[in-house]
Specification:
Largest sheet: 7 strands, parallel
Organism: Nesterenkonia aethiopica
CATH topology of the largest domain: Rossmann fold
Strand content: 15-25%
Bound molecules: NADP nicotinamide-adenine-dinucleotide phosphate
Strand order of the largest sheet: 3-2-1-4-5-7-11
Protein name: NAD-dependent epimerase/dehydratase family protein
Distance between the termini: 34 Å
Pfam families: Epimerase (PF01370)
Number of helices: 10
CATH architecture of the largest domain: 3-Layer(aba) Sandwich
CATH superfamily of the largest domain: NAD(P)-binding Rossmann-like Domain
Helix content: 25-40%
InterPro entries: Epimerase_deHydtase, NAD(P)-bd_dom_sf, NAD(P)-dependent_oxidoreduct
């Protein structure tokens, strides 16, 4: 099904600075592509069903699990953004889509380099899951330490990219993406169900249970989808290439604090009534969090991802923390998100 002639439409009109090919152009990829198009770049989207791509994108049918059938990169390709989802949380599926899919793309980038002398910039959208086993504050200098089979495949895929000199390699490791249509924490709060099992005494032992299996003291890291897209687009266009950036906002916090803040905003009872001492404003605690992301005097634990390098690179985020990002989502009915 996927061959150089499999495009369902003409590739987007070329631009002087070269075409950007977005491989696995779903929600995030389409946002990245729109930003690049508004910056004057020609953008092609590759996916199995390209009919869903936005107007103005070159539409190319491509299945990463059928590497030998993938089209060649267009001659004017300057950059590739690799951002598919595996579709299933199995190591085998991750290998097929990420590692083997990227390998097939690298072969095409290498051939393009041979034909045109062009060195393609390859931006891999990875995940902070490659740091899964870490505790404490991590940044771009932290070693990879995946603790799941899928995280291991992502780490292997990053390594594959880094070891290929025929492309300019760039890795963007995203924390959990939230934003329109991505309402997991919000829906947890709206759905309730934390209940009596969520009652905490403030001790580490008592904090590890919840009726949803949620540990409210586990530090959560996230990035708004608009900032994730802006980060990837900037990694395509920047003249100075960052080799790796962690994509996360400015406020890693225990997930229970996000639940409690959302409940306050929605006028619902706090799911974790003992997380914040009585009489203390949640915003005050969150401010303290900026200075001390691990809340050393509390049972907070897990990894806090330091996104300072990305924030400098972008000159600031549109949504520096979850309060800014969730606020518009609280104003709209779910169906409009
Ligand atoms: N969600 C998070 O919290 C999170 C966290 C860290 C990193 N990320 C990364 O963010 C990236 C994008 O996420 P997203 O939310 O934009 O996902 P998405 O909306 O599901 O888009 C991914 C696209 O990949 C395409 N795809 C799937 N299998 C493919 C295959 N075999 N060959 C070619 N294309 C394929 C799908 O289109 P077709 O079905 O038409 O092929 C889909 O539209 C991913 O790289 C993901 O690992 C996400």
């Amino acid at each position: 099904m996927t061959s150089p002639t499999a495009s369902t439409g003409p590739t987007a009109e070329s631009s002087e600075v070269g075409r950007v090919v977005i491989v696995g152009a779903g929600d995030l990829g389409a946002r990245i592509g729109r930003l690049l198009r508004s910056a004057g770049r020609a953008v092609d989207g590759w996916k199995r069903d390209p009919s869903t791509l936005p107007e103005g994108f070159g539409r190319v049918a491509a299945d990463l699990t059928r590497g030998s059938e993938l089209p060649e990169l267009p001659e004017d390709t300057a950059a590739v953004v690799f951002c598919p989802t595996a579709g299933a949380r199995s190591a085998a599926r991750y290998r097929a889509v990420y590692r083997d899919g990227l390998r097939a793309l690298l072969e095409r980038a290498d051939r393009l380099g041979g034909r045109s002398g062009r060195r393609v910039r390859m931006v891999l959208v990875s995940s902070t899951a490659v740091h899964g086993g870490e505790e404490g504050l991590i940044d771009e200098t932290s070693p990879l330490h995946p603790n799941t089979p899928t995280g291991e495949v992502l780490a292997e895929t990053e390594q594959l990219l880094r070891s290929d000199d025929s492309v300019e390699s760039v890795v963007l490791r995203l924390a959990g993406i939230y934003g329109p249509g991505r309402r997991r924490l919000l829906d947890q709060v709206l759905g309730g169900g934390f209940g009596a099992a969520a009652e905490l005494t403030g001790t580490a032992q008592a904090s590890t249970a919840g009726s949803l299996g949620t540990d409210p003291w586990k530090i959560s890291n996230r990035i708004h989808v608009d900032d994730a897209a802006a980060a990837a687009a900037a990694m395509v266009t920047a003249s100075e290439r960052p080799s790796v950036l962690l994509g996360v906002d400015e406020l890693p916090v225990p997930v229970g604090m996000v639940h409690d803040w959302l409940a306050d905003e929605l006028g619902l009872p706090r799911p974790w009534p003992h997380l914040i001492p009585e009489g203390v404003a949640l915003d005050q605690v969150l401010h303290t969090g900026r200075e001390d992301p691990l809340w050393s005097a509390t049972p907070a634990h897990g990894r806090a991802v330091n996104g300072a390098a990305l924030h400098r690179f972008l000159g600031g985020l549109r949504h520096p923390d979850f309060r800014s990002g969730y606020a518009p989502m609280l104003e709209k009915p779910a169906a409009d998100d």
